[in-house]
Write a structure and sequence with these properties.
By secondary structure, the chain is α+β, with helices and mostly antiparallel strands. The chain contains two helices and ten strands, in the order ββαβββββββαβ.
Amino acid sequence: HTHRHHALTSLPYGSTISLGQLNVNNTSEAGLGGGILQATKAYQITQLMKELKVDIMCLSETHLRDSTTYSIEGYKFYFSSSNAKEDNASGVGIVLSPHILPYILKTTPITDRIMSIEIATSGAPTHVFSVYAPNQKPAYAPNRKAFWKQLTQITAALPETSFYYILGDLN
């Protein structure tokens, strides 16, 4: 369900937001393979965000079956997942740094492949989508078509004055 936040103020005009994206299943070079289920992975992500000064990190292939939320060292983790046992390779998430948290208006888990956050920015809100598109194998063609149709409908429904960014594994 949607988490509504009460932003105290808008991000000041001219401020920079640093965005990043990780496929947490395929990041074995950084020692992060196997989804987000490994106990140390969330901690490693917060350390990476600190080192690279990333405000918002979008995650794909989380392998979670529940849409959940938790915090580690002031970093807030939000996940959008499926309860379906046959689809445990999907799941998306967004991690927010302590710096950006005061400006978050809402976080919305949409499906196991799409979630969004809304940021209070000067002038109009900014939306960030974390996505994980179905792969290119012929068997996934109907899922891929439905995914892109849904993402197009969601972004088309945003106010014309808002900005949006789509980050993720687009396959």
